[in-house]
Design a protein that fits this description.
Elements: H1 7-49, E1 56-60, E2 63-67, H2 69-116
Antiparallel strand pairs: 1-2
Helix pairs in contact: 1-2
């Protein structure tokens, strides 16, 4: 039995490592988006508790500007929807990456099994 790994298997292992890194990156992105979404939902809940004539400021870039309650609510809802869509998109990407990871693992195991024979 040879202990040297064939080039094809080495290539598959490199691909597996890349897929694993992509999966980790996507997981981090999804977590960040979910955190932003949760923060925005909490801000919306608090904002809706305020009276309609409350003085509200929202951040635009480096500035804090005065804003109407309804306008701010509208913008927050839009932000929450956008984040929700992004989380869904990332989750679908994670599923595809997970399937690819499993396929590569199986291919490597088959290749190594054939080499051992």
């Amino acid at each position: 039995m040879s202990t040297q790994i064939p080039p094809q298997v080495q290539n598959q292992i490199a691909q597996l490592q890349q897929v694993q890194q992509q999966a980790q990156s996507l997981s981090i992105q999804r977590s960040q988006m979910e955190t932003l979404q949760k923060e925005s939902e909490l801000a919306l809940e608090e904002l809706e508790k305020l009276p309609d004539d409350a003085v509200i400021y929202r951040t635009v870039g480096d500035l804090q500007i005065r804003s109407e309650k309804q306008e701010t609510i509208s913008k927050l809802k839009e932000k929450i929807e956008t984040l929700s869509l992004r989380v869904q998109s990332i989750s679908r990407q994670e599923e595809r990456i997970s399937k690819r990871f499993t396929q590569l693992q199986e291919q490597i195991q088959q290749s190594m099994g054939q080499q051992a024979q």
